Hints:
The chain is α/β, with parallel strands linked by helices.
Amino acid sequence: MEAYWQIEINCPAPFTDILIAELAAAGFDSFVENDHGFTTYSREHPDQTALQHILTKYTGQTDITHTISRLENRNWNAEWEKSYRPVVVDERCIVRASFHPPAPEYPIEIIINPRMSFGTGHHTTTWLMLHTQLAIDHRYKRVLDAGCGTGILSVMAGKLGAEEIIGFDIDKAVVDNARENIKINQVSAEIQAGTLDTLNIAGPFDIILANINKNVLLHDLPGYARLLADDGHLVLSGFYNDDLADLQIEAGRHDLRLQHSQCKDDWAVAVFRPASNEC
């Protein structure tokens, strides 16, 4: 019977996205996130030299461990489906996969088939972003989804009535996945491949959404400030609550003020608005 190889990576959540991106570029695929990091699978014996080279780049910054094991073949779709359960946000929204039964009792139903992308609602930061979006009026608004992952925040924006949605991500495979999820949910959004630095994105945007790690947020804050409308909302997550002060300081340098923040399981979401919007 054909065997598969399983590589389990244990790492802090802020390093999950960047390690997945690096490993995907090196030829690894089929990533599944979990509470301790993520797992990737391969039909061929993994290139341990490439794997070790990537992990070594970050071991000086954080604790990363990994294990490699051989697994007998099995129905991987069934295994994945068993572990992927719907997520409910504020009893107003349910996030499910296409193989789950419809849930019309919820006003907003989002269908996400994640492949290797980040953003199913299971991670605390995605839940916090969706929760915060529910409290912001998206009707007829122009929305930017930075580092869109599966496109889940763009889908929510569309379900909440946004008029125009532009999303982007650095990984072409992730962009393809986001476009699929946009189509499945029958919302309209333009998803591009690239970064804030490489794409020619024209503002202003009424709402900017960014669920990315702290370092990327700090780097991109000047761009967010430039693209944000005078009465706009900048919603950030992907960082620990202890890091909020650093983001608040950087935002202040660009005339953005913290409107409110929320913490859940040590993770945070923050809403910034232009200083000119203060009452």
